[in-house]
Every structure is written in structure tokens, then in C-alpha cells.
Amino acid sequence: MTKPFTLIFLFLIACNADTSESSASRIDPNKRDLPVQNNEQISSDAGKVLDRGKSRDQGTLKDVGDDGGRDPGLDMDKVKDATQDPPEILRFVAIGDQGEGNQKQYDVGVSMGKVCDALGGCDFGLLLGDNFYDSGVDSVNDDMFNSHFAMPYNHLDFPFYAVLGNHDLGGGGLGIDLDRSKADYQIRYSQMNPKWIMPSEYYSFSAGPVFFAGLDTTDIFFRGDSDQERDIPAWASSAGTKWKIAFGHHPYISNGKHGNAGEYDGVKFLPIANGEYIEDFVKDHICGKYDFYLAGHDHSRQDLVSKCGTEFIVSGAGAKTTEIKGNNPNHFQSDKEGFLLMEATESTMKIQFYDKDGNLDHTRRVTR
User: Fold this and answer.
1) What's domain 3-18+39-367's superfamily in CATH?
2) Is the confidence at residue 82, as pLDDT, over 50?
């Protein structure tokens, strides 16, 4: 191997290792079909509940402000109309980098359950990668499926849609020797536990007023991915007027330790390690095409100011945290463990961050 490539791999090693609306109607999480298709759009019965087939102009997104952790609500005496049903809400949580099997992962799981119950229930969760530290699972029967997923979330009555992170593919997350069989174990586990949903390395599904695309950003990070370059924008085009949320492991912008794609870990000059493929992919296929992009990788919680026509959120504090050091404009950021909770109607997306103790410390609404 020539000396330049040796330097690249050394930098990869150094840079990529990780040191209510209660009165509203809710989608029934039990009414769903387990997805089995590879790299195809999948649809659950839950997604059909709110899909009224109406055609309308999606319009533009409007940020209606940061409530500072408080929901000002409405004067219901003035606005309540007894002849109208409340809007149906899709409610889901999102966490990343949670696969530690440690006490903090359990604590976050307990608080997710309490908050969801208090709000009237959650429909599902999103797992944003690094599901099994430090190097993924070694078989579909690996006990880490139990200790790092089933047990911490055993009390929750909803499933999780999972995507892969760099630590899920072996080598301590360094990317030097990617083991795609480790991805296959997580995919096959979907047939063993109905709470775990990963039909393929990347996939899509619809639920209520929202279309979701789950990305395999580790594949994009190291080589780009022509299949995802083809499918992700095509899926967005076919999603009609639904909210469009892409979710993956690597962030586009972040104030955490890894930082922004294209200059990850301060090595802007180093190809591949700097996240240039992530930067190009998001610019070309996510910006302006998806309303939200949710990511982990940095172990913090961040609601960043929108960029390139898309809202960017980091929720990678499912079991541990790292420092916040960047200066991207933001509505909220915290280096305390916790989770993201989002509530969607056809016209409004409510963003909420809770800490590991279940305290609401940020709320913002986006309307269209």
C-alpha cells in the first residue's frame, strides 16, 4: 500500500472512533405490516389510517418559533368547535448511538415510556445507528440483541425502525474492514423480534401524514452509493404531499465532536475521512427534497437552524454524550442524554427534546 493511502487509513482510525395533545386521535401501532421488501418503499396499515388521498399544495415550511421547552397551547374556550374531531397525530421518538447496554440507555428507555404514556402513546421509534457497540453483532442470535435492545426497551409497546451506523459493521467503527454480514444479522433479526424493523440496509415506509426514508450512510461515507443516489430522490418525488423525513447515522451539519460533513473531525483536507461523500449526497438528494433529516453519530441533542431547504436534527444521546463545540446556528443543543419526540399532523410538525429523566427542555413547531 502506498504511503498516501496509509495516511488516509490512519486518519480514519483517529477520526471515526467514538471515545399533547393527549386528547388527539392516535394511530394504532399494532395495525401494521412488518416490512420485508429489499430497498423498496414499504407501507404499514398505520400509514393508511391517515392517508386520505387528498391532493394539495405542500406549500412552504414555516418555523413558528422556539417555545423554550413550554407549550403555550391555545385558549380552547375561544377556539373549540364541538362539531369537529381533533386532528389525528402521528407520534414517534428518535434516538441514535444508543447501543451500549449501559444504565443510561435504560434510563432513557424508561423516560421514553413515561413520556409516551403521558402523551397518549407513541406509534414507533427510529434508531439512528450504532445500535451495537463497539463492533456490531456476530450472529442473528448474538446476546447483544437482548442486552442492547430487547431488555432496555422491553416495556415499550411500539416497534423501532432501525438503520445502520459505522459501529454496526465491525472494526470498532473505524471502517477499515467493513463486514457487511453484520448488517445482514440485523436485517434477519427483524424476523425474530416484531419490535425490530430493518428490512434492508436502506428502505422507506409511510405512516400517517409522513413519508420516511432510512439511509445507510456508512456505505455513502466510504464510497458513495449509486443505488441510494437513484432511490432516495425518486422516493421523495413519489411521496406526494406527505411530510418527508430522511433518517440516517451521519449528520450533514452538527455542533458535536465530529462536526459538519465535508470537514469531519477537522480533517477537511483528507478525502473520505472528511465526510465529503455525505456532504455531496445530502446536498444533491436531501436538501430541498426532504423536509427533515435526522441523524446521530455525535452524541448530543441538537435542533439546528434549517439549511438548504431542510431541517437538520441530531439525536445521538441515547446512551452517552460527547462535547458540543461547533458554531452552527441552532434553536437548541444539549450534551445531556435524552431523546427526540416528534408529533405530526398534515400541517404541523412538533419537535420536542426530552432529557434522560423525562424533562421537556425544548419545543418547536414547523408548519406548512
Assistant:
1) Metallo-dependent phosphatases (3.60.21.10)
2) no
